[in-house]
Structure formats: C-alpha cells, structure tokens
Design brief:
single chain, 238 residues, alpha/beta, six-stranded mixed β-sheet, four-stranded antiparallel β-sheet, 9 helices, 12 strands, 39% helix, globular, disordered N terminus
C-alpha cells in the first residue's frame, strides 16, 4: 500500500473521509489518488486484494473504491468478503463490457459502481452519495436536495434555481419527489410508472427526458438524473 502523492495548498480537515483505492493499474491508482485528495479525501492505495486486506488491518477506511478485474483474487471476491464481514461501503470500478460483473456486484451488496472510463465529477458525486447514505438519519432529516444550481424541496415539491421557482407538472413533481427520497438508489421503471396510460414504462423515458431539461445543464449528457442500464434511473445530488 502507498499513500497518495498529491499536494494541496491547504491541509485536509481532521474529519476528511479516508478512501482505499484498490486497482492493479498504477497509473489509475495514482490519478485517482491525486484527484480524490485534491477534492477533500484522504487516500490510500493497494494494488491487489492481499495488499488491501493488509491495509484494512492497520487503518480504518470510510469507503473502498475497488476494481473488478485484478490478477489473483478478483475485486468481486474481495467485495463479497468485505460485505459479509464489515460495514465499510464498497464502490466497484468496472469496464463498460462487464455488465454481468456489475449485476453480480449489486447482488452481493456493493453500494454502487462506476463505469470506466468515467467523468471525474460523476465519481465524486457517487462517492459523496455513498458516504451521505451512511450517516444515520441523514436522508430522513434532509428536506432539500441540491443538484448544482438547483434545489428541490421535497415536502413542498418545489424546484428552485437560486431564487427562481421552476415550473413543474404534477407528474414531474411526483417523479422528482420519488427520486429525491431515494437518491443514490436505482429505481426500476415499473416503480416510476402509475396506473394510467401516461405511466407506461415506455412513457417514463419521455417524462425523464422532460425532467432532465429542467435540472440538467446538458440534458443529453446528464450528471444528476442518470440511466442505469437494465435497471431504471437514479438521482445523484450534491
């Protein structure tokens, strides 16, 4: 294991979350360590499962960022062991072609996955959402969710951009409330549909596209309201 080599102009706070990055590719490890450190994380790295286990015996981590494909013991095997023996959140790093691995990871209880190549900002959102979900009572207590310049007030069903109220249809309000209450968790299309003709799973895709035009800077390349292939949709918040 090696600590990150990134440099900051200011020290990290004492309560900065500590992430263990496990990947056999040194370039990826170094890039992730530098980027996460510059964005407020303490970072340690490991090149394989045995090194990761050794690191965890000596240090407490808030989150494990774990590559699936590694020589020797795979990331899936390590993740399964971690989920059965610890409460540390696990986020998988997978290649686009590794669909079955992503599904298997979700089945064994990993908290999320990031597909390579990934957008750095998306990675931060996913990791921060995982950590937020781990805080007792955090979701239940929060009545507001933030998505860049947008704020959605769950109890009132009100979407704002700064001081401007964004008009929502009743259906858009219902959808956004469902996503906000389960942010960071994939929601299947059939759970988003309702009993009338406008609630078919096919119509959901149209409604999601309309909602994206109201909360995304670039609806064609969404950051917050994302499609989970084969699963449905998921909302990431700041």
């Amino acid at each position: 294991m090696s600590n990150n080599l990134a440099r900051r102009s200011d020290p990290l706070p004492d309560d900065a979350p500590h992430v263990l990055v496990v990947d056999d590719d040194q370039k990826i490890r170094d890039l992730l360590a530098r980027y996460l450190f510059e964005n407020g994380f303490r970072v340690s790295t490991a090149s394989d499962a045995p090194t990761a286990r050794a690191a965890m015996r000596g240090l407490a981590f808030d989150l494990i960022l774990l590559d699936v494909m590694m020589p020797g013991e795979s990331g899936l095997s390590l993740a399964q062991d971690l989920k059965s023996t610890t409460r540390v959140p696990v986020c998988l790093l997978t290649a686009r072609a590794e669909t079955e691995n992503r599904i298997e990871g979700l089945e064994i209880g990993v908290d999320d996955y990031v597909t390579k190549p990934f957008e750095p900002r998306e990675l931060l959102l996913r990791l921060r959402n995982i950590l937020r979900r781990g805080q007792p009572g955090q979701q239940a207590a929060a009545d507001e969710v933030r998505m860049g310049p947008y704020t959605f007030i769950i109890s009132r069903g009100e979407l704002k951009r700064d001081d401007e109220t964004i008009k929502l249809t009743e259906r858009e309000r219902d959808l956004l409330r469902q996503f906000a209450q389960r942010r960071g968790t994939p929601i299947p299309r059939h759970e988003l549909s309702n009993d009338d003709s406008t609630g078919s799973e096919r119509a959901i895709d149209v409604q999601i596209n309309r909602l994206r035009r109201k909360i995304e800077g670039d609806p064609s390349n969404p950051i917050y309201l994302q499609t989970v292939r084969g699963k449905g949709y998921i909302l990431y918040t700041d």
